[in-house]
């Protein structure tokens, strides 16, 4: 890996923004191979997750993701893609409440030895809390403060030295929760085999952010990204000549695809699907399309299809 970092091509790629680097894949087959190697080296998720568990356990975590359909999202992924050094308070893992959570919970509580800590509105016993939330979901009685934004509830796990992992339980495939996030800058995620950015031009190149999904977004959520260098844009005041609005990612009325030309994905090297543990979870890749439009309040709203 040290040899790769010294390659002149890698020195050149580091002088470019990541959006331009990804576009270099299209230049030739040779460039595609170099870009893929560069991205796999420089943007490897184990670097972003090293604060929460040793890099040597990352392959096992990928197996856990593959089996459970869990994804990583939130500030951790933005920090990795933007190559920023701002502090992140916790690691956010999203999973379907109806998937087999046992392998994921075993990783959290036994492999990396994190401890579940109940909130005031949660049962102190983890198994009981899961049973309660599953019954509420089956009866369509979501009482969590998070349910209006997509998740059913959020479970907190703490490491010995204060690290915090939040397990966000979703009623559907976890990427549906990503599409209900409060702003475009946060719409990035890591699966077991890819790192995905849904708004790369706005988030990583232009460093702008648009509030999404309703008029009641808490100001502190948007202020967090503003404080990290992302300019907040109001959809009603934008310059229509800018490509990100006219024919690009933030076009008011459009149908998007999780793997369309406007988003980009970095493939994570190494195959985790081989062997006895290579059983993908039900519901993985169950959504592909979403629609974005301006609602009655003039806010960009996303609905998966």
Task: Note the topology.
Blueprint: H1 2-5, H2 8-14, H3 18-23, H4 29-42, H5 45-49, H6 58-68, E1 71-73, H7 75-82, E2 91-96, H8 102-111, E3 115-117, H9 126-138, E4 153-158, E5 164-170, H10 175-178, E6 188-190, E7 194-197, H11 200-205, E8 208-210, H12 219-227, E9 231-233, H13 243-246, E10 254-257, E11 264-267, E12 289-294, E13 300-304
Walk me through the structure:
The protein contains 13 helices and 13 strands. The protein starts with a helix and ends with a strand. It is of the alpha+beta class and 305 residues long. The strands form three sheets. It has an eight-stranded mixed β-sheet. A three-stranded antiparallel β-sheet has the order 10-12-13, with no helix packed on it. The chain has two domains: 8-42, no CATH class; 45-304. 33% of the residues lie in helices and 19% in strands.
Question: Which descriptors apply to this entry?
Answer:
305 residues, alpha+beta, 2 domains, 8-stranded mixed β-sheet, 3-stranded antiparallel β-sheet, 13 strands
């Amino acid at each position: 890996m040290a040899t790769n970092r010294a390659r002149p091509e890698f020195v050149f790629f580091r002088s470019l923004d990541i959006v331009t680097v990804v576009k270099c894949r299209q230049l030739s087959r040779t460039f595609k191979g170099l870009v893929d190697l560069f991205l796999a080296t420089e943007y490897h998720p184990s670097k972003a997750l090293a604060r929460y568990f040793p890099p040597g356990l990352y392959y096992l975590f990928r197996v856990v993701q593959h089996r459970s359909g869990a994804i990583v999202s939130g500030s951790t992924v933005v920090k990795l893609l933007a190559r920023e050094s701002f502090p992140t308070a916790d690691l956010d893992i999203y999973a379907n409440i109806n998937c087999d959570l046992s392998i994921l919970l075993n990783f959290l509580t036994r492999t990396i030895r994190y401890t579940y800590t109940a909130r005031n509105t949660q049962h102190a016993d983890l198994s009981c809390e899961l049973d309660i939330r599953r019954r509420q979901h089956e009866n369509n009685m979501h009482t969590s403060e998070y349910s209006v934004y997509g998740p059913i509830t959020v479970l907190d796990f703490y490491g010995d030295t204060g690290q915090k992992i939040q397990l966000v339980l979703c009623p559907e495939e976890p990427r549906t929760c990503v599409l209900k996030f409060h702003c475009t800058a946060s719409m990035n995620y890591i699966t077991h085999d890819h790192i995905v950015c849904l708004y790369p031009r706005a988030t990583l190149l232009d460093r702008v952010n648009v509030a999404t999904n309703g008029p009641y977004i808490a100001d502190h959520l948007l202020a967090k990204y503003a404080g990290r260098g992302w300019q907040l844009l109001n959809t009603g005041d934008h310059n229509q000549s800018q490509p990100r609005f006219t024919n690009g990612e933030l076009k008011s009325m459009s149908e998007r695809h999780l793997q369309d030309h406007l988003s980009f994905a970095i493939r994570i090297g190494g195959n985790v699907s081989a062997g006895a543990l290579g059983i993908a979870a039900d519901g993985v890749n169950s959504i592909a399309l979403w629609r974005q439009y301006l609602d009655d309040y003039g806010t960009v709203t996303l609905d998966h299809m």
